Amino acid sequence: MVNSCFVTLVILFLWGVEEIAEACSCSPSHPQQAFCKSDIVIRAKVVGKQEVEVGNNIYGNPIRQVKYDIKQIKMFKGPNQEFDAVYTAPISAVCGVTLETNGKEYLITGKLSTNGTMHIKLCSFIEPWENMTDTQKRSLIQRYEMGCKCKITYCSSIPCMISSPAECLWTDWVIEKAISGQQAKHYACIKRSDDSCAWYRGGTPPKKDFLDIEDP
Q1: Is it the case that residue 47 has pLDDT exceeding 50?
Q2: For the whole prediction, is pTM greater than 0.70?
């Protein structure tokens, strides 16, 4: 009987661990995809951190989250308001994000909650501002938004292909074995005048019709 109870507890424990792991499983995301899927995209300086209670769960236990105090520098996408904090889960096992609080600047993408606060998780695109390429920074102003109706298809192995003209094939992994490769750093997937989509690289807004690759 004791052995039976022990086995049951082990199974329940492993099941719980698996649920946590699955809860924080993230698919690779191009910066443009992250921009388009997010409610809020901001550049901000992180200046503080504290653990706070944000309510109670169905069992009456307090729900704890980490609150990062921020100084918003620029809003690229989101509601007409200034955010002074972002919230995340307390540990990485449930998708909590760890940020440096010494005034480091980040590009932060996140979701807007019903109470008007901004929430982030491990699957959010969060990058130190100093690591962003010039193309990525320019694309936040307009270019990524121009391609939100396009679909970026992640290629994890050869062969891979698109199923529609309104798709761009993201091949950084198969070519460079890196998610943050040339297409992620320097290209945006933009809709053309014939409703097809293609990768664009350039320092000026795309022409009405353009080639898949165009240097600045």
Answers
A1: yes
A2: yes
